[in-house]
Amino acid sequence: MKKITYSVLDLSMITRDGNAATAIKRTVDLAQKAEELGYKRVWLAEHHNMEFIASSATSVLIGHVAGQTKRIRVGSGGIMLPNHAPLAIAEQFGTLETLYPGRIDLGLGRAPGTDQQTAMALRRGDLNTAYQFPTDVTALQKYFSKENKTASVRAFPGEGLNIPLWILGSSTDSAYLAAEMGLPYAFASHFAPKQFKIALQIYRNNFQPSQYLDKPYVLACVNGIAADTNEEAELLSMSLYQLFSGILTNARKPLSPPIPNLLDSWPQELLDAVHGMTACTFIGDKDTLIEQFSRFIREYEVDELMITGNIFDNTKRLRSYEILSEVFNAIKIF
């Protein structure tokens, strides 16, 4: 028996009473707390043209967080590779790994992390880069390899460094690629749970051992809201539900204080849509969450859980992650 590995995903959400600077400070606070509590890694996500998310310059923010911590792994969940030249990412993450050896992860996604018009601006008018994703991942592997020393184009720093690559996904496409390349697979079940089960089946059934992994490795990202009582956890979760409502209705807002009985005022159509997106959301006190997560881990046999917890009050957010660490330390898996 062993304990489940647990980690953090943070988007540097801007709160209603804050700005980008305070959002980044909250991210640093969380990373430092997560390190203290034994979380394995903290990942930051690339988004663009989103007024209330401060993680657009993801590589820069990873460096800042790594510089404010000592041991915890810091990485991308993820870098949206079609937005970038693989050589530039190899140089950026080579620099990060040189500064913080043995602590950097590179999670790679195919989606733009934004709307189509902004993707056009990022990709300088070429949206076909999304179709080059498998080739670009291979190019990254080449830039990081020692064997690239005879090539005419090389990544300095980066070449010869051991920077773990992950394939990220929110649908089944990435499952095939992660399996084919023998890479660890991280699924965004915190907002796209519908294809989670089938994606895991595809990944495991098609996995090809590689120099990186001899067997499949699955990380599931989920929403987690913990408090000392179930009632408080439910109240805190209303900030999360406001975020998802804003996504679905195209009325995005900063992370806002929880509203009691918020869901009672929603039309059934919106309620169903939000519940569909948040099916992998865990809310409650320690005992409730031990039961919920134990059932989830048994059903999906995940190797690692990554928690994103959008709670307005920073003190209560840090307390939530503290309770969650107690939950994961209490769960034993075979």
TrEMBL record:
Gene3D superfamilies for this protein: Luciferase-like domain
Segments crossing the lipid bilayer: none
N-terminal signal peptide: none
Gene Ontology CC: one annotated term: cytosol
Boundaries of every Luciferase-like domain copy: 12-295
Alphabetized NCBIfam families for the sequence: oxido_grp_1
Family: To bacterial alkanal monooxygenase alpha and beta chains.
Protein name, entry field: Luciferase-like monooxygenase
